[in-house]
């Protein structure tokens, strides 16, 4: 699949990057209807497709695809994975998939072919949102709360094996925050505004917080 036509395809339109943070469950418990996002431009990471109909889905972990490939392959969206997917014939031959290389140098990519991963699918989703031309960009389920790492409050779902969750150490959170912050700073230099949609997010020191309920008041 060639994604070159998607560079700046949605320039100036608002978009949502959807992660797997526990805050999504908190919104659900408060009654937020995530189907409201079905008509938005959404870039999801990993299990974000359980939240709404994502238009783009990114995952970095080979084990993740192995575990959930049947449900992933059924999704009506564009699926992106790094170079390990080259050896998976059932993935690379599909018309709705795209394989990219890990480019370590730039916080903001210039092409879909080479994207810095930093071992975090959420920050890759943010970089994809940039390539799509989205502005502003709202981060949903991007919690980065150090105390949640490796606990049952890390994800909005309970699908992952316990060993996967416990293997993610709290110290990794600081690295991920740094990766997000440097990307956000680069976006700001280009006039692109990024918002946090979680009141306790580790990114709220760097970007404004906006409540999802307020963003969709007019659609109620």
List keywords for this structure.
8 strands, sialyltransferase cstii, chain A, eight-stranded parallel β-sheet, alpha/beta, 7 helices, 220 residues
Structure write-up:
Helix 4 (121-132) packs parallel to helix 6 (171-189). The chain has helices spanning 23-29, 62-73, 89-92, 121-132, 162-166, 171-189, 212-215, and strands spanning 15-18, 41-45, 56-58, 78-82, 97-102, 114-115, 137-140, 194-196. It has a single domain (4-219), classed as sialyltransferase cstii, chain A. The mean pLDDT is 95. The chain has 220 residues and is of the alpha/beta class. The longest helix is centred in the last third of the chain and has 19 residues, at 171-189. The chain is 29% helix and 15% strand. It has an eight-stranded parallel beta sheet.
Secondary structure layout:
Blueprint: E1 15-18, H1 23-29, E2 41-45, E3 56-58, H2 62-73, E4 78-82, H3 89-92, E5 97-102, E6 114-115, H4 121-132, E7 137-140, H5 162-166, H6 171-189, E8 194-196, H7 212-215
Parallel strand pairs: 1-2, 1-7, 2-3, 3-4, 4-5, 5-6, 7-8
Helix pairs in contact: 4-6
| H/E series | EHEEHEHEEHEHHEH
Largest sheet: 8 strands, parallel
The fold-level CATH name is: sialyltransferase cstii, chain A
Count of DSSP strands: 8
Overall structural class, as computed from helix and strand content, comes to: alpha/beta
Rounded to the nearest angstrom, the radius of gyration is 16 Å
Silhouette = globular
